Amino acid sequence: MSKTLPKIAWIGLGIMGSPMSENLIKAGYDVTGHTLEQAKLDRLAAAGGTAAPSIAEAVRDADVVITMVPASPQVEAIAYGPDGILENVRPGTLLIDMSSITPGTSIELAAAAKEKGIRVLDAPVSGGEAGAVEAVLSIMVGGEQADFDEARPLFEALGRTIVLCGPHGSGQTVKAANQLIVAVNIQACAEAVVFLEKSGVDLAAALDVLNGGLAGSTVLTRKKDNFLNRDFAPGFRIDLHHKDMGIVTEAARSVGAALPVGAVVAQLVASLRAQGDGGLDHSALLRSVERLSGAQV
Predict the structure, then answer these.
(1) In b/e form, how buried is each residue of 22-45, taking b as 16+ CB within 10 angstroms?
(2) Which residues are within 8 A (CB) of 259 and not within 5 positions of it... i.e. 6 or more apart?
(3) What residues pair up with 66 in beta bridges, in sequence order?
(4) Who's near 280: CB < 8 A, 6+ residues apart?
């Protein structure tokens, strides 16, 4: 079976990249990976993948290169330069960047790659660690229809909702909107939790009934236990959401869109990070509301 499937190089094996690459292995793909942490390389090898000591070695024989790193600077670091992806892949290779970065970075990468005969899709995802593990991610894609059609079987091994949103950079624009909605939603839930608790209501019961009505959301479903248990082990770190709120704020300014509530939540995320909570899950916005409401956390 693996004879006919494209050979995959996977760069970046973090909270999202590790389970995603493993889902491709389970789907029968030959995956060679590179990342900076040895433990993550060992995990890939244990799952049936091949660990590579460098980007150049990982991508040399690949038909498709998939990248999943934290932000624009890391994408630029792995893509460009003598040791980067563009200098070491074969012409005709499909490069799929699944990181969440600025739309401008994606557009620049696609242009630079095109000069070398390399096709690019930006394909950021939503669904967090749980969505990555369960292969139910929402994947928003920017690029050419033909490249999207070719990549679709890969995306189907990783996610459930897979949509081509427009030309290069469009996936990142939709992802930025996603992060705006998620942050505002978490903030609203956090405010409700503090209000409910201070009112002496049974929080678990209240969140159950709220989630069954118009106030219900995927955010509340996924994060309810985080709120109830004050469990902020990172599925998606505040540090990364801080980065994403910067992306959406900057992108909105550049197109002339006002984000008044988004701007306030962006500052609350920044404040949480400044208080040392950057490594916690974004549901830890609850801590910020608790502090504002007089609690010592």
Answers:
(1) bbbbebebbbbbbbeeeebbebbe
(2) 180, 248, 249, 252
(3) 10, 96
(4) 232, 233, 234, 237, 238, 272, 287
- Tell me how far apart the alpha carbons of residues 266 and 256 are, in angstroms, rounded to a whole number: 18
Whether the pLDDT of residue 194 is over 90: the answer is: yes
Class assignment of domain 174-293? mainly alpha
Fold of the domain spanning 7-167: Rossmann fold (3.40.50)
**Which residues, in sequence order, are CB contacts of 116 under 8 Å at separation 6+?**
86, 91
- The model's pLDDT over 33-65, given as tens digits with 9 standing for 90+, comes to 999 999 999 999 999 999 999 999 999 999 999
**Which one of the listed residues 175, 223, 224, 243 is annotated catalytic?**
175
Q: Could you give the count of Cα atoms lying within 13 Å of 176 in the half-sphere of its Cβ?
A: 26
* pLDDT of amino acid 2: 45
Report domain extents, the chain: 7-167, 174-293
What is the reported pTM? 0.94
C-alpha span between 236 and 147 (Å, rounded): 29
Phi, psi angle pair for 131, to nearest 5°: -65, -35
Based on the residue annotation, tell me whether 3 is a catalytic residue of this protein.
no
Say how far apart CA 176 and CA 12 lie, in whole Å.
21
Do 1 and 28 touch, CB atoms closer than 8 A? Answer: yes
Contact indicator for 58, 34 with CB cutoff of 8 Å: yes
Nearest to 89 by CA among 20, 11, 35: 11
Cβ-contact 34, 253 below 8 angstroms: no
